[in-house]
Amino acid sequence: MFSLNPDQLKISRQRFEESIFFRREYQQLHNPLSWTDYLFDLVQTGQFDQVLDQLNQPWDWTPGQLAEDELRSHKNLAICLITELTSKSLSHHLLTSDIGFSLTDSSIQLLEKAQSQLAVSDCLIAFIYLLMEEIQDQPRQSQHHLVILTKKYIHKHFNSKIRIADLAKDIQTSASYLSTIFKQEEKMTIQAYIQQERIQRAKQMLVHSDLSLTSISQLTGFTSQSHFGKVMKALEGMTPRQYRLKYNKHYSHI
Questions:
Q1: What does each C-alpha distance from 44 to 27, 38, 93, 179, 242 come to in angstroms?
Q2: Which of the chain's ends, N or C, has fewer CB atoms near its CB within 10 Å?
Q3: What is the distance between the alpha carbons of residues 95 and 100, in angstroms, rounded to a whole number?
Q4: Quick check: is 253 in a domain?
Q5: Structure confidence at residue 116 (pLDDT)
Q6: How far apart are CA 28 and CA 64, in angstroms?
Q7: Angle at CA 137, nearest 5°, toward 171 and 164?
Q8: CATH of the domain at 170
C-alpha cells in the first residue's frame, strides 16, 4: 500500500538538493529538452544515420548520474531514453501500445544483462533501429488514412509552398473533404498543422545551427522572416531570436 514516508521524503529532498548544488557548482548542464525532441524527430522520420551522429558527437551538456556504479548509471540513462522515445511514439500515435511496450520491455531486459557500457550502447542502438522499423511498418489504424497521407506530404514538402488543393490532388481526394476529415481527426486545420511542423523544424535549426533567421525562414517554407516571427511568437510565446538566445548558448550572432 502506498503512503508518504516522512523519513524517505527527507532523504530524497536532501539528495535532490545535493544534486542541484553539484551541477550548479560545476556548471554541468543536463541534456536540453530540445535535444531529445530533435532525436525523436530523426527517429520518426527514419533518419538512422543522423541518429547515430547525434549519439556519437561530443555533447555540450553532462548526462545525469543515475547510480554510483558507472555501468548501472549508463544502463539507467539508456532506459530513460528508451522510455522517452517510446512514450513520444505512443503519444504521436506512431505505434500501438502492445508493440511499443513489448519492444520497450524486451529491450530493457536485454540491456539489464549487459556487462559493459559498450554492450549497453549496442542494446540502445538496436532498440532505436527496431523502433524506427516498427514506426515505418505500423498501419496507424488510429488515424484516417487520408490524415496519414496528408502528414507524410507535409513532412516531405514543409520547406516549400503547400496548397491544400495540390495536396488533395496528390492523395486523390477533394480539398473540402480532406479539410473536414483532417479537422475531425486532429482538432486543427491543415494550415495550422503545416505551421506547427514548420515551427518544429525551425526550432531545431535555431538550436542546432548558426543559420541566419532569414535562411531558417526560407528553409522551413515561410514566405518571409516577419511571417516566421509572427507564427513563432503565436505558437511558442517568443520570437525566433529570443528562442535561440534561450536554448542555443553557443550562438554568438544573428
A1: 32, 10, 11, 24, 27
A2: N
A3: 6
A4: no
A5: 92
A6: 9
A7: 20
A8: 1.10.10.60
Q: Please report which residue ranges of the chain form alpha helices under DSSP H.
A: 6-25, 33-44, 48-56, 70-91, 97-112, 117-137, 145-157, 164-170, 175-186, 190-208, 213-219, 225-236, 240-247
Whether 191 shows a pLDDT value over 80: the answer reads yes
pLDDT of residue 156: 87
- Domain containing residue 59: 30-137
10 Å Cβ neighbour count for 197? 17
Q: Are residues 91 and 39 in the same domain?
A: yes
The three cell numbers locating residue 141: 489504424
pLDDT at 66 over 70: no
The three-point CA angle 151-48-97 to 5° equals 60
**Beta-carbon contacts of residue 138 (< 8 Å; ≥ 6 apart):** 94, 95, 96, 99
d(CA 57, CA 90): 27
Dump pLDDT digits (tens) for 89-123.
Answer: 888 878 877 788 889 989 998 989 999 999 999 99
Phi, psi (deg, nearest 5) at residue 32:
-70, 150
Domain identity same for 175 and 76 = no
Buried b (16+ CB within 10 A) or exposed e, 27-64: eeeebbebbeebbbbbbbeeeeeebeeeeeeeeeeeee
The pLDDT of residue 53 is 86
- What average pLDDT score do residues 123-135 get? 92
Residue 219, classified by CB atoms within 10 Å of its CB into exposed (0-12), middle (13-18) or buried (19+), is middle
> Does the predicted TM-score (pTM) go above 0.70?
no
